Amino acid sequence: MLNVALIGIGNIGLLYDDEFENTQKALSHIKAIYLHKKFSLKYVVDIDDTHLQIVKNIFPNVLFYNDYAVLKDKSDIDIVVIATPTNTHFSIINDFQNHKSLKILFIEKPLFNSSVEYENLTEQLKSKIVVNYLRRFDKNINKLKKQISNNKFGTVQKIVINYCKGIKNNGSHMIDMINFLFNNPTIISSKILSHTRGFDKKDLTYDIFIQIKYQNQLIPLYFLGLDHTLYNTIEQNIYFENKIIKYINSKSAIEYYDIVPDKNFNQYKISSHTPKMKKVKTTTLMLEAYNSIYKIIHNKKRNLSSYTDELANQNFFETILKES
């Protein structure tokens, strides 16, 4: 049994889940730990105890603290989960530099706010970090990555991403997905076209044209930002030579469209009207993340969401926003 200490029992830590009897859904860390037979929640930390009773209802023996500093002296912790605001991550991580039993630091995205913080982390801490980009843990997204790598659908013609609520807050999910699917492609050029309402004043929702290089091919990549007060959308459309593939977050699905002859105009080709669908199990991806962590600890799986992977996301983000 692996002991977990959770720092932060807000939305992603706890509150996204309200049905703990439902075994088909785990949107929070506490629910995933509750459902996974190899993990035990030993400690929780938060600045207030407003939601503590919810935790105690399912983990009656959990120990609660207002200050995470007490965890540094606990020798029975295998995993520390950090579900606090991004600006607190660096100091919390560094306080576990000398912790003896710690195996994994599981941290909400983005890892840090600035490149300085990325540069000032020890190699020992870097090696223990898993960043919570949940889509990396889905089997069908991993399958799509392999298909792209094997050039199954021909060359990529264009990638169009629709998103909202800030390039860093929500856009980071799609930046990470591009880096994951296309093995951290090189950015050849980028240009900010416009912007709309963002997550906050420091994180706007940009329209950006980017040219990336993947397998010696130059690919146009568009981020198209929408106003999240009108509706929420996260979609990635990849136009291949022989297939159109759409990841649609609201459907929790990847849609595969064949290229077929137009029945009315036989000199043209169109995309099929009915796609083949592969589900992305959004409601259980947190549980899949803990499955992956268990395998990482026991050397049965490579860390697919490491410090190095997150650094690539940070470099991508900084490169495309140089002119903002």
Structure description:
Helix 8 packs across helix 10. The longest helix is centred in the middle third of the chain and has 16 residues. The chain folds into 2 domains: 153 residues, 3-Layer(aba) Sandwich (Rossmann fold); 142 residues, Dihydrodipicolinate Reductase, domain 2, CATH 3.30.360.10. It has 10 helices and 15 strands. Helix 4 links the parallel strand 4 and strand 5. The chain is of the alpha/beta class and 324 residues long.
Q: Which overall shape is indicated by the principal axes computed on the Cα atoms?
A: globular
| Main sheet attributes: strand count, strand direction, barrel closure | 9 strands, mixed
What is the CATH class name of the largest domain?
A: Alpha Beta
Mean pLDDT: 95
Give the radius of gyration.
21 Å
Structural class: alpha/beta
Give me the count of strands: 15
Q: Return the CATH architecture of the largest domain.
A: 3-Layer(aba) Sandwich
Low-confidence stretches: none
Number of continuous helical runs? 10
Question: How many structural domains?
Answer: 2
Name of the CATH homologous superfamily of the largest domain:
NAD(P)-binding Rossmann-like Domain
Helix content bin:
25-40%
Ends: how far apart? Answer: 48 Å
Percentage of residues in DSSP E strands? 25-35%
Give, in order, the helices and strands: EHHEHEEHEHHEHEHEEEEEEEEHH
CATH topology of the largest domain: Rossmann fold
Set out the fold topology.
Blueprint: E1 2-7, H1 11-15, H2 29-35, E2 39-45, H3 52-58, E3 63-65, E4 79-82, H4 89-94, E5 104-107, H5 115-119, H6 123-126, E6 129-131, H7 139-149, E7 156-164, H8 166-181, E8 186-200, E9 203-214, E10 217-226, E11 235-240, E12 243-248, E13 253-261, E14 269-271, E15 276-279, H9 285-297, H10 307-320
Parallel strand pairs: 1-2, 1-4, 2-3, 4-5, 5-6, 7-10
Antiparallel strand pairs: 7-11, 8-9, 9-10, 11-12, 12-13, 13-14, 13-15
Helix pairs in contact: 8-10
